[in-house]
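Exercise 7b. Backbone tokens:
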């Protein structure tokens, strides 16, 4: 190992951290998984340095773990025993903003927020947005195909990447920095590296899509009697707002009441309690016309009994107040420990039946289990937390819920990825043939298995 480290130290543009200089931040992500100490942290500042690192590690059969901003929630970037960490933080910066093509070319270690701010300064938006925006890197977002708050309107990260550069396990640089929306010249190889969580290659640069800024925004917090009305409302708003609905966040009373009762800075703006709540937004180009459409649509939903109470934001302060309830999820850890946290998707048409089945099987298998439920819903994504107060029950809760997800044809990971945590549950959402093809791809692109071993796919 010492020989390899010496060679890695000699690579121009690389920086190597060893021993006590490896701070705690390189040892864990945001999951509850145990931290791990890498043999060294390799910090390339150029694609060439990254390529040279991988060439040497490949020749030596040295396993590596790839790290972006380390905000992942599934343990994928945590070093395992015997691994070296390749951290992309120094491969950082915006190379170009092309206003005509509406693209931005960036290096993989650029923080998401830096990209959002640069787009904003040039009169555009880069619509990927998530709570970890200040710390996560675009390379991590691409590798996890991150979702977030605006998937409904703009799609997941995959839909926002036009071109990509990746370094393969043996150090080969695959440059495909396409700027065009249409390009059917053979296989679109960038998808090998989007959402594959660093198991097939290391993302080094990307060409991202930008969009014009919305000129208007309308926000409302709505109360409904049951989930059947939620799906009817979703259909109504999708039809009326035709592609301009930018948020449709659903919070069940279990979640809404918990947050508004426990989190100091968050209060319910309603005088009464309701079974389910929807936070919705419309973004468009004409504030007056959009506000009229928004009001008229919600008024008719109330007249039809779909919505039983409604609050329309009349200022940015109101909007922030509504979103604080949804974003209050980040505070739950202060009140409940030992939760099983789910990021799953099931078809919207099965969601009510799915939740009823989960509740029934959970209570039978883990007496006293409680659930806090919320989700983006319009993109089929449900988040929820289950807890009893005892750490001993956590694994049983994961086992029960993921089995039911499989029974309903859902996905054990809507947006956070598989990482290490969900590797044992992949078979609930992928067929043996799908998993075998994943393993074949891994074998073809990384025959020595040095890239993020033991993540995403079993075996
Ligand atoms: C408060 C909070 C809110 C969040 N909200 C959301 C959300 O709404 N939606 C969502 O999808 N996720 C969310 N996440 C999860 C997380 O932020 C995303 O998964 C994010 O995309 C990870 O980026 P990162 O740079 O931190 O990657 P890391 O955590 O460093 O790595 C994640 C995975 O990607 C691999 N990887 C990292 N960089 C590269 C690269 N350049 N090339 C190849 N592989 C690489 C790693 O090996 C690891 O497997 C949230 C996390 C937090 C803490």
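Sequence design result:
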């Amino acid at each position: 190992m010492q020989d390899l480290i010496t060679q890695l130290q000699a690579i121009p543009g690389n920086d190597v951290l060893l021993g006590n200089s490896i701070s705690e931040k390189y040892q864990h992500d945001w999951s509850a998984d145990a931290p791990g100490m890498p043999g060294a942290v390799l910090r390339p500042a150029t694609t060439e340095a990254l390529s040279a690192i991988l060439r040497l590690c490949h020749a030596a059969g040295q396993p590596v773990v790839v790290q972006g901003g380390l905000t992942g929630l599934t343990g994928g970037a945590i070093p395992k025993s015997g691994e070296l960490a390749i951290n992309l933080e120094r491969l950082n910066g915006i190379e170009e903003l092309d206003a005509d093509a509406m693209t931005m070319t960036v290096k993989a270690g650029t923080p998401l927020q830096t990209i959002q701010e640069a787009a904003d300064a040039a009169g555009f938006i880069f619509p990927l947005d998530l709570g970890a925006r200040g710390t996560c890197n675009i390379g991590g977002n691409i590798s996890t195909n991150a979702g977030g708050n605006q998937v409904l309107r703009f799609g997941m990260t995959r839909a926002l990447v036009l071109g990509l550069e990746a370094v393969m396990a043996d150090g080969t640089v695959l440059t495909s920095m396409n700027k065009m929306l249409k390009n059917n010249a053979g296989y679109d190889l960038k998808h090998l590296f989007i959402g594959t969580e660093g198991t097939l290659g290391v993302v080094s640069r990307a060409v991202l899509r930008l969009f014009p800024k919305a000129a208007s925004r309308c926000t409302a917090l709505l109360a409904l009697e049951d989930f059947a009305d939620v799906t009817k409302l979703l259909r109504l708003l999708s039809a009326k707002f035709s592609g301009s609905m930018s948020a449709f966040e659903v919070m069940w009373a279990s979640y809404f009441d918990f947050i508004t009762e426990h989190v100091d800075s968050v209060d319910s703006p309603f005088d009464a309690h309701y079974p389910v709540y929807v936070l919705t937004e419309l973004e468009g180009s004409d504030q007056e016309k959009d506000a009229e459409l928004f009001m008229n649509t919600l008024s008719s939903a109330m007249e039809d009994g779909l919505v039983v109470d409604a609050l329309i934001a009349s200022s940015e302060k109101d909007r922030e107040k509504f979103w604080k309830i949804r974003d209050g999820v980040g505070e739950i850890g202060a009140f409940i420990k030992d939760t099983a946290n789910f990021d799953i998707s099931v078809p919207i048409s099965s969601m009510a039946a799915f939740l009823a089945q989960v509740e029934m099987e959970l209570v039978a298998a883990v007496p006293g289990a409680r659930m806090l439920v919320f989700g983006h819903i319009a993109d089929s994504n449900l988040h929820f937390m289950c807890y009893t107060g005892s750490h001993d029950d956590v694994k049983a809760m994961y086992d029960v819920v993921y089995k039911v997800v499989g029974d309903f044809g859902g996905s054990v990971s809507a947006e956070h990825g598989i990482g290490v945590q969900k590797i044992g549950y992949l078979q609930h959402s992928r067929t043996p043939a799908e998993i075998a093809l994943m393993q074949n791809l891994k074998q073809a692109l990384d025959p020595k298995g040095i890239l993020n071993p033991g993540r995403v796919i079993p075996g």
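Instructor comment: The first strand starts at residue 16 and ends at 17. Residues 94-212 form a domain with the Uridine Diphospho-n-acetylenolpyruvylglucosamine Reductase; domain 3 fold (CATH 3.30.465.10).
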